[in-house]
Design goal:
The complex is a heterodimer of chains A (about 350) and B (about 600). With about 350 residues, chain A is mainly beta. Chain A has six helices and 26 strands. Chain A has three domains: about 10-45 and about 135-285, 3-Layer(bba) Sandwich (Glucose Oxidase, domain 1), CATH 3.50.30.10; about 50-125, OB fold (Dihydrolipoamide Acetyltransferase, E2P) (Beta Barrel); about 305-360, no CATH class. The two termini of chain A are about 20 Å apart. The mean pLDDT of chain A is about 95. With about 600 residues, chain B is α/β, with parallel strands linked by helices. In chain B, about 35% of the residues lie in helices and about 25% in strands. Chain B has 18 helices and 24 strands. In chain B, a hairpin with a 4-residue loop joins strand 11 (about 285-290) and strand 12. In chain B, helix 6 (about 230-245) packs across helix 7 (about 250-255), helix 12 (about 360-385) crosses helix 14 and helix 15 runs antiparallel to helix 16. Mean pLDDT of chain B is about 90; it is low at about 575-610. The chains are: A mainly beta (about 350), B alpha/beta (about 600).
Chain lengths: ~350, ~600
């Protein structure tokens, strides 16, 4: 009976297609990119504005209009629905000469509605810019979303702190963060580069990274208690495995090792259940031949498939499916669940619950 | 007389982690569960198409039943039933997957209207974002901003008894209308009105130009009366519309279902309405479901389902919030090993990253089971005031008790599942324990919308797993002292006696489905409804019979004894069936039962020949 496991992409060379979107309630600016044109990872591909609170202004009351008929209000108002207004801009005017009374916009925003003698102004809250985050070519674009197609090595991670960097990276020195802490940040070769730590990190390590002005940190895991702290850091923190003391996936770190010296996009997206983006590292590679298409996430588990084990006691290990027994197997803890026989080494085959393996794309 | 519909029924339950599929069909003139399958739910990115998981489950079911379910032409998802018995007569779907619906409550009074609205919502997967009443101290501007900035999916308007207050409700409607008229980008929230019936037309007329408007009967037609059922039915329709619009491709499944996509809880409520009406010991049935993202408890009290759902408690997607709510200390009291808070938090965060995974080590399994116990206790704490069964800290005499959700139904041994229920609920008296590993109850509740007879027959025809009867006397005896003297007589006149001591839980090693006579003698300090002697004829379940002498309320071990005591309880429940220990009293040697391990088909054949 086929089983369709989850998938994590760890690929040396892949077609990477990413769609960037403005929030649905944002007001989009003019297009920032041109179809089929190349874009840099840090380039703005979409821009817009998000409006904030509504302000209800009783125009008649403010201007002391005694008989605010629709015609009278038409005469008084100096703005229309949908019009953008600046702070201090004239919204309405009544009277002449010395008796003139003027209502000015109390804030910058948009006239959302005019209802009788009331005017609703929605304040401008923030302008937003959406970056490409991966280098490539614009393959589709409209006012609210842009699709970018690139190619390179792709490593999907478990967690990110919501930050981003497009930088070169280096592995930690042999003496780890302790060694890094002794360096002079002004001349350190680790300054402004992303640090790759093949061992779990702790609070002290993050403080050293901050002090050394690194551009980011990639590690297998850290304590979940450090999440809040990590999210306040200005540089990306990417965890490849999860939280606590987790074993690194060798394959992943080998891939990073093989591409040392290149710049990479470290997109430490905070994982969210219904969001399409996952935290990931993309190392752009020169276009040599046709990149394999992005793997389909709906693939059945087959004998011979390479998988990563996601739960203890074999978490982080990569193996090959040796057999898929039809009957459920009894685990060490007594649970009887559908399992795969996974070959971890030449002489070691272990039963692993199907739910605890993921395909490696 | 119309011809009775005898077609098969396929029911899907789209859970946060698993998509379960059940096939109900006629067997010897009665409907029963004939097949069940399960696949991973595929609603979340990158797949974002819940129908895919459903197709996987259907293909799996077809493989082991030989029953073609999916339409090979691909014109529709399921093949209509044909004369060869292939295909599906009816397809129904429930769902608990997806983000809970965000609801903004608008009502006349907090004590009456909003309370009734909250009772109506209690059976749905919702989060209440904010409330608005006439006595709201915020400015009108702030109220409008609250309505719009809450990102609510639905505005639920209640208030005014029928023929009661109108003007204040109209003022609230005006605010809602103003807020809706300002939504120019994104999707406006749906409106459900269940207030003063005089205003139904006015609500439609004022608000329908801005959004979808549902109206139904008043949740509080008079000051004394609550009328929740019509609002719950309408809520199910709103939920169906909400789910159809949500990410995950739920609309494709909803279109296939004869009743749309019904919240799983509504299925539970519907089924419990039937089960609560059945005669039986106790005040009614009790069902607990601990899922990945949501958990619920539903009880039949005075023939009415009383339910509490928590969309923030689960052992997968919501494990982090569950751990925060129940606190690590409460989880640790169920662990027979030392585990610091940080380790537990790391565990929870890892599980939340990969909620579909299962614990593969003993430590991790025990952590999840510990958390499940505390989630159930939290549900009981929430539900107890609604039951109206008094102030006692003990569980009212619910019977039977049914557990659903993988963490409760998939354990190392069925008796461990029974112990989890006993630990978490601490029932008193004699109670039958059941497992619902296929979410049959919720599915049958939805079937009852169309064909109630199928629900009745399928429930009676054993779709649930009977764990067995648990004997849980009230009171306590000191640890190690004689507590329950048990004598079990089998149909073949063989006899087993055993003394359960204070602080112990004992599983009588019996084969399932065996009719037995049980005689109980309790020590001083313990009782079943004031009696110390009891005789019952019973049929054993898959966990045999369970005798719990750990006391009610349950006496938790002291910290220094905790590891040993918890392991002893666990071993008593999960150890392979052994011959019963020799009692102090004389026991004829032939009364000893063989262990389950000894009962291979060959051994059973020999035994039956001997008999």
């Amino acid at each position: 009976m086929p089983y369709y496991p989850e998938m994590t992409v760890i690929q040396g060379f892949a077609a990477v297609v990413r769609t960037r979107k403005l929030p649905p309630h944002a007001i989009a600016d003019a297009p920032q990119v041109v179809l089929n044109e190349p874009v840099d990872a840090v380039q703005t591909v979409l821009a817009g504005e998000i409006l904030g609170d509504y302000h209800i202004i009783d125009v008649a009351a403010e201007l002391r209009v005694k008989n605010p008929t629709p015609q009278r209000m038409d005469e008084i108002l100096r703005v229309d629905e949908g019009m953008r207004v600046q702070f201090g801009q004239e919204l309405a005017r009544v009277g002449k000469g010395r008796r003139t009374r003027v209502l000015y916009a109390p804030l910058e925003g948009v006239v959302t509605a005019i209802m009788g003698n009331r005017l609703v102004l929605q304040e401008s809250r923030q302008t937003i810019e959406v970056k490409a985050r991966v280098p490539g070519q614009v393959s589709a674009a409209d006012t609210h979303q842009v699709t970018i197609s690139g190619r390179g090595a792709l490593i999907q991670c478990a967690w990110g702190n919501g930050r981003y960097a497009y930088r070169a990276y280096r592995f930690l020195p042999p003496d780890g963060f302790a060694g890094l802490s002794k360096m002079d940040p002004r001349i350190s070769e680790y300054r402004n580069v992303v640090i790759i730590s093949p061992a779990p990190i702790n609070m002290g390590d993050l403080l050293v990274a901050q002090q050394q002005e690194v551009a980011g940190v990639v590690a297998p895991s850290m304590s979940a208690d450090l999440r809040e702290f990590a999210m306040q850091l200005t540089f990306p923190v990417l965890l490849t495995e999860g939280f606590g003391q987790r074993r690194p996936t060798t394959l992943l770190y080998r891939l990073l090792q093989e591409n040392m010296g290149r710049q990479a996009a470290f997109d430490a997206v905070l994982p969210e259940r219904w969001a399409e983006d996952r935290p990931e590292i993309m190392i752009p590679l020169p276009a040599e031949g046709v990149a394999p298409p992005a793997p389909s996430p709906d693939q059945a588990l087959l004998v011979g498939t390479q998988v990563r084990i996601t739960r203890a006691p074999w978490d982080g290990l990569v193996g090959t499916i040796e057999a898929l027994p039809a009957a459920p197997q009894v685990l060490e803890n007594g649970l009887r669940v559908p399992c795969a026989q996974v070959r971890l080494s030449a002489d070691r085959i272990v039963p692993v619950p199907l739910a605890n393996v993921e395909l490696l794309g | 007389m119309a011809e009775q519909d005898t077609s098969s029924i396929l029911v899907a339950d789209l859970g946060s982690v698993h998509t379960r599929l059940l096939l109900l069909d006629l067997v010897e003139g009665q409907y029963r569960l004939v097949a069940a399958s399960r696949a991973r739910t595929t609603a979340e990115p990158p797949l974002s198409r819940v129908a895919l998981g459903l197709e996987h489950a259907a293909a799996q079911m077809a493989e082991f039943t030989g029953h073609t379910l999916l339409d090979p032409q691909g014109q529709q998802m399921f093949l209509p039933e044909n004369e060869h018995g292939q295909g599906v007569g009816a397809f129904l779907a429930t769902s608990s997957a997806g983000r809970p619906m965000r609801v903004f409550l608008v009502g006349l009074t907090r004590e009456l209207s909003l309370e009734a609205a909250q009772h109506a919502l209690a059976g749905s997967y919702v989060t209440i974002t904010d409330t608005l009443t006439p006595d709201d101290a915020r400015s009108e501007e702030a109220q409008i901003n609250a309505l719009l900035n809450s990102n609510s999916d639905m505005i639920f308007i209640v208030g005014g008894t029928d023929d009661g207050a109108e003007e204040l409700v109209k003022q609230l409607l005006a605010k809602v209308e103003l807020a809706l008229s300002l939504v120019h980008r994104g999707t406006p929230p749906t409106v459900l009105f269940a207030g003063n019936q005089v205003l139904r037309r006015a609500v439609k007329a004022r608000l329908e130009q801005y959004t979808s408007v549902f109206t139904t009967k008043n949740v509080r037609p008079t000051a004394q009366e609550e009328q929740l059922f019509p609002a719950q039915i309408e809520l199910a329709l709103v939920y169906d519309e909400y789910r159809s619009k949500s990410a995950g491709g739920f609309d494709a499944v909803g279109r296939q279902s004869d009743v749309g996509l019904v919240p799983t809880t509504q299925g539970y409520i519907s089924a419990m309405r039937y089960m609560a009406a059945l005669p039986g010991p106790g005040i009614g049935p009790l069902c607990v479901d601990v899922g990945s993202a949501n958990s619920l408890i539903i009880a039949g009290v005075e023939r009415e389902p009383i339910y509490t759902i928590r969309t923030d408690l689960g052992v997968g997607h919501n494990i982090v919030r569950a751990l925060e709510t129940v606190t690590p200390a409460r989880v640790q009291q169920w662990l027979p090993f030392e585990m610091d808070d940080e380790w537990l938090r790391n565990y929870a965060h890892n599980k939340a990253l990969r909620p579909a995974t299962v614990p593969a080590t003993t430590e991790e399994l025990l952590i999840e089971q510990a958390l499940a116990r505390e989630i159930v206790r939290e549900l009981v704490t929430d539900a107890r005031p609604l039951w109206g069964t008094g102030e006692s800290a003990l569980l009212p005499h619910f019977h039977p008790i049914i557990a659903a959700g993988a963490v409760l139904t998939e354990t190392q041994h069925p008796a461990v599942a029974a112990m989890l229920l006993l630990d978490a609920l601490q029932p008193v008296g004699l109670v039958d324990l059941y497992l619902d590993p296929h979410n049959l109850i919720a599915s049958l509740g939805v079937v009852a919308y169309l064909r109630p007879l199928v629900t009745v027959q399928a429930l009676e025809n054993g779709g649930l797993v009977h764990l067995g009867t648990a004997f849980c006397p009230l009171g306590r005896v000191r640890k190690g002292r004689k507590a329950i003297k048990v004598q079990i007589r089998y149909g073949n006149k063989q006899k087993l006696t055993h003394t359960v001591r204070g602080g112990e839980i004992w599983r009588a090693p019996l084969l399932p489905g065996e009719p037995v006579e049980v005689r109980i003698q309790l020590s001083r300090g313990l009782s079943f409804g004031g009696k110390r002697r009891l005789k019952r004829r019973l049929v054993t379940g898959v966990a045999g019979l369970i005798f719990d002498a750990r006391g009610r309320p349950l006496a938790m071990p002291r910290p220094r004894d905790r590891a040993a005591q918890l392991m002893a309880w666990l071993q008593a429940m999960s150890a392979p069936m052994q011959p019963a220990p020799l009692p102090e009293e004389e026991l004829p040697e032939e009364a000893l039962l063989p262990s389950l391990e000894d009962l291979t088909p060959e051994a059973l054949a020999v035994l039956s020949e001997e008999e």
